[in-house]
């Protein structure tokens, strides 16, 4: 019998598998995707949000615990478990030596990402390189990996894991880590969660999925509905970004994100603005825009900029629609020209331009306009003009399994002794809503390591340990 069964193939699953193996446990990892598509959404990531009290190699200045916590508190609106959140924050300050030990390399922030040069450590080669490094290390350590191996149900007796069923095969293990992602790729579940709006639309029908097609939420549904595991989170809350409407249905990744929102205005299909584009720095607020667009007619928006914005944001994979005048741009985007011009003229006339500086919360704001634009408000008046059609792009969902600082799955508020959860399947404990760049990888890394350590202890009949993993512990048997 295997000691630790890990279900999932992304960052959290790999961290769990590596930790369990380092602790001396035999480990089998089941990844539902084919080898070429392994890694889930982690393959599309590029950085990790890290607490640090002083400059550290690729991280500049300092990003102390309290600032990290306040950033998280702001974007979640208080919908977070402070104890678990602070545990993730503290774990983010110590995990990088362990990551390097397993082949992950870091690089300084690139042009276009300087807003997060102080807060986030970037992976050299991005998330795909990180995933590949972890798989190489896992295989070298003797972790068994099976691809195209979806698990559809578990045997659980009195809250204790017994076995998993994978394509008709029963797989027993002494303990198990669930790290199989959310349900963002399950269109029917998204439709169920979002329902029908007052315009008779089914918003979820127009959602694009930024990441993997393999996160169907099968095990999550099974745990909630069949086994009554304690749940956390709202099924409509997700890491949801405004992305190019021309993006593919799955796996568009970062390159389809539209990052010029804060440099211009966003209008809906009625050619009207609907939110403050300059509310806060883009890395803190970019993940609200998918949900905002999802609430608009046809789940569509349009990001409008002029030539002054060019070179100030990460260019997307598709070029914007270009025009030499604003009426021409409206026509090319299929928007009502008269309404569009009223919206743009009202905005331009309300701009009170101060000292524009996109690296700070500057004093360029609108006056007497609703909704206001509170920073970086400059008239859109310099040809050529550009427009990008937007759709909601779902990265991962927040509905998940409730846990504690041992990463144990809970049943009726009683923790399981040998079933643990990590990554997107429990991220809602920390992320009730909202997002800030890199925190998903922080959660997956912290809880993946905790779950893997405690699964190895459970396989030996020992009780789970509370709290974050320290690097000196993780290298004990490496």
Automatic annotation (TrEMBL):
Obligatory cofactor(s): FAD
Highest rank taxon of the organism: Bacteria
Keyword Flavoprotein set for record: yes
InterPro entries assigned: CobZ, FAD-dep_OxRdtase_2_FAD-bd, FAD-oxidoreductase_2, FAD/NAD-bd_sf, Succ_DH/fumarate_Rdtase_cat_sf
Molecular function via GO: oxidoreductase activity
Keywords: FAD, Flavoprotein, Oxidoreductase
Domain annotation FAD-dependent oxidoreductase 2 FAD-binding: ranges: 3-430
Name this polypeptide is given: Precorrin 3B synthase CobZ
Taxonomic placement: Bacteria, Pseudomonadati, Pseudomonadota, Betaproteobacteria, Burkholderiales
């Amino acid at each position: 019998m295997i000691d630790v069964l890990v279900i999932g193939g992304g960052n959290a699953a790999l961290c769990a598998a590596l930790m369990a193996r380092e602790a001396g446990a035999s480990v089998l990892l089941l990844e539902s995707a084919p080898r070429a598509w392994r890694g889930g959404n982690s393959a599309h990531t590029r950085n990790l949000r890290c607490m640090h009290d002083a400059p550290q190699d690729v991280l500049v200045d300092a990003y102390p615990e309290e600032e990290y916590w306040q950033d998280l508190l702001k974007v979640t609106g208080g919908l977070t478990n402070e104890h678990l959140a602070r545990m993730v924050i503290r774990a983010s300050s110590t995990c990088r030596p362990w990551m390097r030990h397993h082949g992950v390399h870091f690089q300084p922030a690139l042009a276009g990402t300087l807003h997060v040069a102080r807060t986030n450590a970037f992976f050299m080669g991005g998330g795909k390189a990180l995933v590949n490094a972890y798989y190489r290390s896992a295989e070298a350590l003797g972790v068994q990996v099976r691809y195209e191996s979806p698990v559809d149900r578990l045997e659980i007796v009195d809250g204790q894991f017994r076995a998993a069923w994978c394509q008709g095969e029963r797989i027993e293990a002494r303990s198990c880590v669930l790290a199989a992602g959310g349900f963002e790729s399950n269109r029917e579940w998204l439709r169920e969660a979002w329902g029908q709006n007052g315009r008779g639309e089914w918003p979820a029908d127009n959602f694009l999925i930024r990441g993997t097609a393999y996160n169907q939420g099968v095990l999550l549904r099974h745990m909630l509905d069949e086994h009554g595991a304690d749940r956390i989170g709202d099924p409509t809350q997700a890491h949801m970004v405004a992305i190019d409407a021309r993006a593919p249905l799955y796996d568009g990744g970062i390159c389809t994100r539209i990052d010029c929102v804060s440099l211009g205005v966003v209008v809906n299909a009625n050619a009207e603005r609907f939110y403050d584009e300059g509310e806060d720095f883009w890395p803190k607020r970019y993940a609200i825009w998918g949900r905002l667009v999802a609430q608009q007619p046809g789940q569509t928006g349009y990001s409008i900029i002029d030539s002054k914005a060019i070179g100030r944001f990460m260019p997307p994979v598709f070029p914007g629609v270009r025009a030499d005048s604003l009426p021409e741009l409206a026509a090319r985007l299929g928007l009502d020209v008269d309404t569009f011009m009223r919206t743009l003229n009202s905005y331009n006339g309300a701009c009170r331009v101060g000292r524009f500086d996109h690296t700070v919360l500057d004093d360029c704001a609108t006056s007497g306009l609703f909704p206001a634009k509170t920073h970086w408000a400059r008239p859109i008046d310099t040809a050529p003009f550009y427009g990008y059609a937007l759709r909601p792009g779902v990265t991962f969902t927040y509905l998940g399994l409730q846990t504690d600082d041992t990463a144990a799955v809970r049943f009726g508020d009683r923790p399981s002794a040998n079933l643990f959860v990590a990554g997107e399947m429990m991220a809602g404990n920390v992320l009730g809503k909202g997002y800030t760049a890199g925190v998903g990888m922080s959660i997956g890394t912290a809880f993946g390591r905790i779950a893997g350590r405690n699964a190895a202890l459970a396989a030996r009949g020992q009780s789970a340990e509370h709290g974050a993993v320290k690097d000196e512990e993780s290298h004990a048997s490496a």
